[in-house]
Design brief:
Blueprint lengths: L1 E10 L2 E9 L6 E8 H6 L7 H11 L8 E4 L1 H23 L14
Parallel strand pairs: 3-4
Antiparallel strand pairs: 1-2, 2-3
Length: 110
């Protein structure tokens, strides 16, 4: 099933992300994932990452029911923040431990 992001609705600090699930020969299925925006701030996650996190939640769920309503929890956001920090630390370590440059070769003596 292919997911299509259809936008969001917001009421105070709660944002509801809407998705359509499309499969060939099947009717379109509607999904909604709600998220408390204060959790994004608490976990230092940009609000623009919301649709991607919701899509991962939908694809990770065992066959969500039609018109299913899921929720991004603090645990979901904390896991994402932790994975992101780990990836950044690995990148920094790879840069620090990158290939060593050889000293320049001495000029040929004549």
């Amino acid at each position: 099933m292919e997911l299509r992001y259809m936008g969001f609705d917001q009421k105070q600090n709660t944002r509801t992300y809407k998705f359509d699930g499309v499969a060939s020969g099947q009717p379109t299925v509607h999904f909604a994932v709600t998220a408390d925006l204060t959790l994004f701030l608490a976990n230092r996650i940009g609000i623009q990452e919301g649709p991607t996190l919701c899509a991962h939640k939908l694809t990770g769920s065992p066959e969500p029911a039609a018109d299913a309503n899921l929720e991004l929890t603090n645990e979901d956001l904390r896991a994402h923040a932790s994975a992101r920090s780990l990836a950044e630390a690995r990148k920094a370590e790879a840069r620090r431990m990158g290939p060593r440059r050889r000293p320049p070769a001495p000029p040929p003596s004549a």
